[in-house]
Design goal:
Elements lengths: L1 H11 L1 H13 L8 H14 L2 E6 L3 E7 L2 E12 L26 H17 L5 E9 L8 H7 L2 H5 L4 E11 L3 E3 L2 E4 L1 E10 L3 E2 L9 H19 L6 E11 L5 E2 L2 E10 L2 H22 L2 E8 L4 E3 L1 H15 L4 E3 L10 H4 L4 E9 L20 H15 L3
Parallel strand pairs: 3-4, 3-5, 5-16, 6-15
Antiparallel strand pairs: 1-2, 2-4, 6-16, 7-14, 8-12, 8-13, 9-11, 10-12
Helix pairs in contact: 1-11, 2-4, 4-11, 7-8, 9-11
């Protein structure tokens, strides 16, 4: 069976996968600046004789492997390559060499698993037919997202793929396991930037000022009421203000201006659009009532990540056949976001979680933290999963 051969090759190439992951982990680069990372990936593809096109959004790469059996179907796999502005803890031999940059979200793992899948599928290309495309994508961590930009540059037309799969590390899930969710899985994300402008002055002379702080507080209360009204158990939203700064001001000085920043997330695109309209209307009502000016800017980010039910259920069954049913779990919805969502709006997509945690080894730190790490046995699982799911979805 090809599944057995894939697992054998994942084990055979394990040391290579560890070396690749540790090299990438040592040399992380921020979103849309992944120049050395791109060079490294291409060096491996060149070494293995893999065909690719590069310079997608400058650092992105689209590789492909063709099976030698008859088959016209095309399927795609995606891995992201950027890192985060986080300073990694000391004490690891493969610790980041770049100050204040770290693969704290596991994109080094995603890239390694994609390279591992390429190596496995190239070794087995006499046993399958069709074409598998491999997307090495920049800029997942930064709006507007590398996925949207690669799509604007013609990626979908270039691939002509029947579907796409991506994976993401999940330290809360034990190594050796994978997790899936069918349907709407991850939330849309919007950044909110609000400027409230009044008239500053002496705090002891309230008749001479128009207080932007009081108006800001009223606006936040109204937004909280809107969140409570729109929130539902099966269709949740998040509306939060995370930053509140006055421009000037003191104990006895009312400032002219206040700036707020926040996030809005939803699991439904219609609710997302409606909430945008409601927020803008609320802002105008508070502005009129408080005699201030409110500039309410909603920067539209990643859409809802929708896992195609048919593809996802097929992948769940395949994962159970590869790993065993006790190593495949159903996961709840997440209010985090991912730019893989752009692909899932263009074609059937499945985005799943790769278990990377090991409590006994003390490997359980969350992503986006300076202490994040993985049990590297996950590299074998991730590479094998990507290879197997791609081959089976060519049938």
């Amino acid at each position: 069976m090809i599944s057995d051969k894939i697992k054998i090759l994942a084990q055979k190439h394990f040391d290579l996968l560890v070396d690749i992951r540790r090299h990438l982990h040592k040399h992380p680069e921020l979103s849309f600046k992944e120049y050395e990372t791109s060079k490294f990936i291409k060096s491996k593809l060149d070494e293995w004789g893999i065909s690719y096109s590069d310079n997608w959004v400058k650092t992105g790469i689209l590789a492909e492997v063709k099976g030698e059996k008859n088959g016209e179907k095309v399927f795609a796999l995606r891995g992201d390559i950027d890192a985060l502005p986080i300073q990694e803890v000391e004490g690891r031999s493969y610790r980041s060499k770049n100050q204040n940059v770290m693969h704290a979200c596991g994109h080094d793992v995603h890239t390694t698993c994609l390279l591992g899948a390429i190596r496995i599928l190239e070794d087995l290309k006499s046993e399958w037919g069709g074409t598998i495309k491999f997307i090495f994508q920049p800029g997942e961590e930064k709006l507007p997202g590398g996925a949207s930009l690669m799509i604007k540059e013609g990626l979908i037309e270039k691939m002509n793929s029947s579907g796409i799969i991506g994976q993401h590390v999940h330290p809360q899930l034990e190594v050796g396991k994978v997790g899936f969710h069918s349907g709407a899985y991850m939330a849309s994300a919007n950044e909110i930037y609000i400027t409230i402008t009044g008239k500053g002055g002496h705090a002891a002379l309230p008749g001479n000022v128009v207080d932007p702080i009081a108006a800001s507080c009223q606006l936040i209360l109204e937004l909280n009421k809107l969140e409570a009204e729109l929130n539902e158990t099966e269709n949740p939203i998040v509306l939060s203000i995370g930053k509140f700064n006055s421009v000037g001001g003191a104990t006895n000085v009312i400032p002219d201006q206040v700036k707020l920043e926040g996030t809005f997330r939803a699991m439904d695109e219609h609710k997302r659009k409606n909430a945008h309209e409601r927020m803008l209307k609320l802002a105008q009502q508070v502005a009129d009532a408080s005699n201030v000016q409110i500039d309410f800017d909603i920067k539209k980010g990643y859409p809802v990540l929708f896992n195609n039910p048919e593809l996802t259920e097929r992948c769940i069954a395949l994962a159970e056949s590869l790993l065993g049913s006790d190593h495949v779990v159903r996961l709840p919805k997440r209010m985090t976001s991912e730019d893989f969502a752009f692909y899932s709006q263009e074609m059937p997509g499945c985005f799943y979680r790769l278990g990377t945690g090991n409590v006994e080894k003390g490997i359980n730190s969350p992503v986006h933290t300076p202490t994040f790490d993985i049990d590297e046995d996950a590299l074998k699982v991730g590479a094998a999963m990507m290879a197997f799911l791609a081959v089976e979805n060519l049938k």
